[in-house]
Amino acid sequence: MKFNRTINGLLSLLLVLGFSACKKALEFNPTTEYSNANFWKETSQATAALNGAYTLLQSALGPEGVYYGEARADNIALNLISLNTESLNLLTNNVNSSLRISNWNQLYAVVNQANLVIKNTKIMKDNGIYSNKLSEYNQVTGQAYALRALCYFNMTRLWGDLPLVTEPLKDATDDYYIPRSDTSQVYIQIESDLDSASNRLVATYSPSIYTKAQFTLGGVNAIYTDLYMWRHQYDKAIVSSQKIITNTANYSLTSLTDASVLDNTSYAKMFTTGISSESIFEIDYNFSERGKRSFYIQVYGDLGFQPAFQVSEQLMTKFSPNDLRAKIAFDDRRAINKFFEKTNFNRSQMDDKNVIIYRLSDILLLRAEALNKKKRVPEAIAIVNQMKVRAGEVALLPAYYNTLTENQIENLILDERSKELCFEGKRWFDLVRTGKAIEVMQPINGLSDPQNYLWPIYLNEIRLNPLLKQNSYYQ
Fold it and tell me: Which residues does the UniProt record annotate as the domain RagB/SusD (predicted)?
């Protein structure tokens, strides 16, 4: 089932296509001019502007989201048939400032659209346009804050210090020279945005499909959990993850045994159809309704389509023969087909698979990491066993896990995340977050310097903004 987000023709053109080709200091596509005479005068226009932000997010993270989280890690290997130079550079850790993927401007475009919504809806509210419509105002602004927080969180994990922009850029005629703010300031901004979002958003929308494809309170708590784990604030991560787990009305694990054919299980359809019971927030695409494609087929898929990547031998060896997830994720030719129908897949019409940003298994396993750090090992292993038993494996027993050190249990949890969340854009961040990137990747691609964890700032950004300084490893 797909989520139909309506933007009328004129607003779609203004909000999404109205970015010109001209570039300025932050390499934004310059913001669309909104005439005060005919825009920001009705609540429906603000909602359309918010929808424009979601559309920009489609472009920013489809398929770049999986490149950022997988292409420098050990779950994937190069598909030699594809001869994709950029993919080869990332897998061999030849990351440089001329790579297209090092350009942050599409994420900043989402930030700018969110800034437009936040600023102008406040003016609309002050002018009485949202009179008797406080819940609608909260829903629109809350989602804008959450979108901005998500983008800044992704960007600071990739590039570190960032130019913090919380006001909309006006047009393409001014120069916007903005220096980078320290990551501590970026984290403050992210938490502030999440606080603003959580104070405004509700747990569910009607129809229910909106609960998965737009930001809700659950989606905000998922970012909180991810952020707290990234910053090693384990107590906070346990609290925020619990808020998601207890919301059983909206979030429950899918099954690998609820259909006679494995590909028809709710687990398998979570990736091919989208909007599952397990989903917390995913970026929705729909080719038939809106012509939107996530272009996953360029990254993964049947090797006959010449995608960039295939499954790595390192990941294949982690799956036991009884693990049903392997049969869904890849085939015996090493083609990654987790997100595609195994038969009758039509590349020209069905390359609109949703990009899952957060799902319940992700949050549960992050929680397991936090519990392990807080010496609550039985609770952590109980989560791991949930994943294993669902997949057809045998649960771990106390006689085994009680002999393990904290680090060994962390590795066990990371291996489970590697299997459960493979190809979903999580693995690189897992390795960096836990300080294991060099240990795992040095034998594969020579990674040896923690300063190399960050990505380079795109060369054209440096040229356009004299206040930007390149990350030290790439100077």
Answer: 336-474
pTM above 0.85, yes or no: yes
DSSP 449: -
Contact 356, 426 (CB under 8 A): no
Instruction: Tell me the C-alpha distance between 158 and 65, whole Å.
Output: 11
List the chain domain ranges: 32-61+102-201
Asked whether 130 and 46 are in contact (CB, 8 A), the reply is: no
Dist CA 72 CA 75 (whole Å):
9
- Residue 357, φ and ψ in degrees, nearest 5: -85, -45
In angstroms, rounded to a whole number, what is the distance separating the alpha carbons of residues 267 and 443?
33
CATH topology of domain 32-61+102-201: 1.25.40
- Secondary structure letter of residue 214 according to DSSP: S
Which residue ranges in the chain fall short of pLDDT 70?
1-37, 170-175, 287-291
The CA–CA distances, whole Å, from 247 to 37, 148, 196, 213, 382 equal 44, 24, 21, 17, 19
Torsion angle of alpha carbons 320, 322, 323, 324, nearest 10°? 150
> pLDDT tens digits for 54-78?
999 999 998 888 899 999 999 999 9
